[in-house]
Amino acid sequence: TWKWVVGPMFLYLCERLVRFWRSQQKVVITKVVIHPFKTIELQMMKKGFRMEVGQYIFVKCPAVSKLEWHPFTLTSAPEEDYFSIHVRIVGDWTEGLFNACGCDKQEFQEAWKLPKIAVDGPFGTASEDVFSYETVMLVGAGIGVTPFASVLKSVWYKYCHDATNLKLKKIYFYWLCRDTHAFEWFADLLQSLEAQMQERNNAEFLSYNIYLTGWDETQATHFAVHHEEEKDVITGLKQKTLYGRPNWENEFKTIAGKHPGSRIGVFLCGPEGLADTLNKQSISNSEADPRGVHFIFNKENF
């Protein structure tokens, strides 16, 4: 038996040694931003750190726990001089990180008071392949929008500098969220991207659909009163927020009709149930003819 065990054990020990070595490398928290809906953004720097869009890292905060490592998707773009994560406060560890960063205090926090952070990674995900397609569908559910924040930021930077070599020509972006507060931290990025595309006369590059899946009677009345305004009352974007859930069969058929003969990447960061739905739609809407339209499904579940 030892012949079969010694190999995997050796690889496991090597992986643990690499993680220990990485955890000893100095990480500097350059900024902590408090966003609405109990979400904080940590901007960090680390010597020799290289990332691609949609990747994730493991984070350990010894001030909270000396042993726990937690995975977080990177929300910064490779073009930026820092890397960042968005952390939603939903449990004991995230609550401890929130307090350790001084987010529970009103006064300004000095940089030297911020806790030490250990980072392992980055590690690759399916989202890295976004720029391999001419047309993509990006689907995020709730906080699952984080990998696409990295993608859209990177697209924004590429358009600011030189987009002539960019293979990606069309993005269909879908974001499903239960609460209006969750839109606030991400809407600024969409507004910047929307303005950038309009300045360059390429407003059709990004087609985004934001779905609010939960609301009460008071909110519905408020939305109805402001429906005729130029910008959406929730996000401040020109594209109006939609209510309910998307009809995925109609969405896939519409996109297939607009891009015949294309390979379309479908990228999801969301729950398993939504993954099953999109996977079935990708299969049923792909043509048997190799020259026809094909949907290639990629997923990250949480």
UniProtKB/TrEMBL annotation:
Topology relative to the lipid bilayer, per the entry, is: Multi-pass membrane protein
Q: What positions belong to coiled-coil segments?
A: none
| Stated name of the protein | NADPH oxidase 2
**What's the superkingdom here?**
Eukaryota
Q: Which UniProt keywords apply?
A: Cell membrane, Electron transport, FAD, Flavoprotein, Glycoprotein, Heme, Ion channel, Ion transport, Iron, Isopeptide bond, Membrane, Metal-binding, NADP, Oxidoreductase, Phosphoprotein, Transmembrane, Transmembrane helix, Transport, Ubl conjugation, Voltage-gated channel
GO BP annotations of the record are: defense response; monoatomic ion transmembrane transport; superoxide anion generation
- State its cofactor: FAD
Give me the reactions it catalyses. Answer: NADPH + 2 O2 = 2 superoxide + NADP(+) + H(+)
Q: What is the annotated localization of this protein? A: Cell membrane
Name the PANTHER family for this protein: CYTOCHROME B-245 HEAVY CHAIN (PTHR11972:SF60), NADPH OXIDASE (PTHR11972)
Checking PROSITE patterns in the record gives: FAD_FR
Q: Which GO terms describe its cellular component?
A: monoatomic ion channel complex; NADPH oxidase complex
**Name of a matching Pfam family:** FAD_binding_8
Q: Which CDD domains match?
A: NOX_Duox_like_FAD_NADP
> Function of this protein?
Catalytic subunit of the phagocyte NADPH oxidase complex that mediates the transfer of electrons from cytosolic NADPH to O2 to produce the superoxide anion (O2(-)). In the activated complex, electrons are first transferred from NADPH to flavin adenine dinucleotide (FAD) and subsequently transferred via two heme molecules to molecular oxygen, producing superoxide through an outer-sphere reaction.
Q: Where is the signal peptide?
A: none
Q: Which gene encodes it?
A: Cybb
